[in-house]
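Hi,

I'm pasting everything inline rather than attaching a file, because the server keeps stripping attachments. The sequence lines come first, and each chain or strand is labelled.
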Amino acid sequence: EAQVTQNPRYLITVTGKKLTVTCSQNMNHEYMSWYRQDPGLGLRQIYYSMNVEVTDKGDVPEGYKVSRKEKRNFPLILESPSPNQTSLYFCASSLRAVDSYNSPLHFGNGTRLTVT
Amino acid sequence: GNSVTQMEGPVTLSEEAFLTINCTYTATGYPSLFWYVQYPGEGLQLLLKATKADDKGSNKGFEATYRKETTSFHLEKGSVQVSDSAVYFCALQGNTGNQFYFGTGTSLTVIP
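And the predicted assembly:
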């Protein structure tokens, strides 16, 4: 089954303790991206990747890191989490972003992160 | 810059009522426009899309027309069902193709 898999689904951590949220897709997609969803703000793009070893900042990259060493994986790293990073996070992928008309974004089911 | 504004919710309708969710956008150039739907506990799924002025996207009885003159992409459905209860997001893809901008989402509840 074609899917985007995020882990974990729920995560509670403390300020400053490094964490990684994993994202994996099995569709051979070139493009992957991370979003955070907050009430009243909708989804905001954190980082995106056009292909292996090609990443760039979205609208809200501060406090986050990403890497794209393999095509299928795009982990989100919070090196020193803070309470304002408490949010619902989504990973998404598409075959090629520039061809989104024929290749829509496929989303994972989300990771709810709480930083205390 | 690019941005999307959609009507505040929540919206509650009776089954078979007409639905409109307003969406307007600000963008440079000619963005592609989308509606995504999010069911409880799930990620977003593409509902419909349009890439140029006057295009009409449609799917599952939902429709939206890309109106460049009013910079709008309103979502409509003639007769909603209980199963349509979800959160709906309007989105645009920026000119570079790499960045996507989403509205704040509109929660729809359809009651029998």
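Chain B touches chain A through 24 residues (CB under 8 Å).

If the labels don't parse on your end, tell me and I'll reformat.
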